Amino acid sequence: MDFTNPYELLVATVLSAQCTDERVNKVTPALFKKYGTPQKMAKAPIEDIEELIRSTGFFKNKAKSLKTAAIDLVEKYEGEIPQELGPLVELPGVGRKTANVVLGNAFGIASGIVVDTHVTRLSNRLGWVRGENAVVIERELNPQVPQEDWVMFSHYLISHGRAVCKARKPACSHCFLEETCPKIGV
Description:
Blueprint: H1 6-15, H2 21-35, H3 38-43, H4 46-53, H5 59-77, H6 85-89, H7 96-106, H8 117-125, H9 134-141, H10 150-163
């Protein structure tokens, strides 16, 4: 996703729920031009936010979360993004995944492994975890990976999941793990 500061990353990550990064990157330039700070987003008419983000899906919920989170950021944190997991996940629309993305990619803070659909799929296929619960998967993966590698580990799995280990037709013959992968669920 394209961003130039922690707030833009937070917004883009909230928008990425049930949406592709490509679509988010088409929406955010106009959104950031108009409402690129928590102060501006907090004052924005909700209908305007909805219209700008409509194509990301679930736009009414996302617009409400973005506006309310912006108000909270202004009122509680002087418009700054908290650099701790606890305060971040208290913001509307921000769960552990979004908080881990922001902390890791905007601040270099490894608060936990980002568990998205690709990390979930690969972790299950490789037999590292069982199940779909992102919090449980994060809890099980974190001790298996050195903390200093958490941010890049997520990036590697996401990239591999998009390019090779796809949900419907994994390209196992092109995978460097083919010999050792148990291919669970394939």
